[in-house]
Target: Zinc-type alcohol dehydrogenase-like protein
Amino acid sequence: MKAVGLYRYLPIEHPESLLDVEIEKPVPAGTDLLIKVKAISVNPVDTKVRAPKEKTEAAPRILGWDVAGIVEQTGPDCTLFQPGDEVYYAGSITRPGGNSEFHLVDERIVGTKPKSLDFAEAAALPLTAITAWEALFDRLGLSRNQEENAGKSILIIGAAGGVGSIATQLAKLAGLTVIGTASRPESAQWAKEMGADHIISHYDAFLGQLNAIGFPGVDYIFCLNSTGLHWQNMADAIVPQGTICSIVETDQPLNMNLLKNKSVAFAWEFMFTRPMFQTGDMIEQHNLLNEVARLIDNGTLRTTVTERLTPIHAANLRKAHAMLEAGRTVGKVVLEHFEGK
Model:
């Protein structure tokens, strides 16, 4: 079957950074589904895994952790899906990604595709929706009850990106005042379209900008960009007994003492934790994807796809990786259709 993979970890400008390859079609066992891939999306995790390093692969490594497709075959222990079902999911970073014609995934982290979306629109959602949902409701501990969040505020650092676009919508749905950071007119406009109430710059001190729009601080912060760079700003902007969550690893030590006097809680969010460690609540990703699909289909949430590339092949995936690495994308970049399919 066709796939896009790599043998060496190279700069995206190198023609061999991502290659068109042929690999064997897998067979599902246990609770795995075999998915016929219809569309995929690209995320920063793809570019981080592919980033240059002194390592080579004997067999092609397949990336891609956003998929929408059709169940082709089910493993013997599957109970949630059957052949023909249309699904969407992010998968597991410890297994081959979905940049291939067919893909294996554990059904416990798969959701039913929103009926109102085509495959490309659905492929834009899983990784970002899981990340945003887990961060807001599991890590930050937000209630989904609007009345309980009355008067509460959240600062989303990097509100115009893929995760920020979904997090903004979910936070508004939960009744919070959303303040997003953006650096360009087009990203600020996109964040406002997603529901942000206010926009500030992530290049300037947060607290002064918050004060200027009437906020002495914020109750929650969700960091989607450079945890280390924004650490002091976050410590200054969070209110006493507030909570901060980040998805971005740091290559420098964080001074946790900055949070002590305010009794501020800090949490990491990594949406691959559940499938990576086969946690007992792994099926929660199935449940939340189904809930996101329901919210999409009733018009409460919207997809975040902003650009489509056709077909799915190495050249277009290199283009998509380059767009993400340039740091100027808003929403999500999606690829659809394998050549000849």
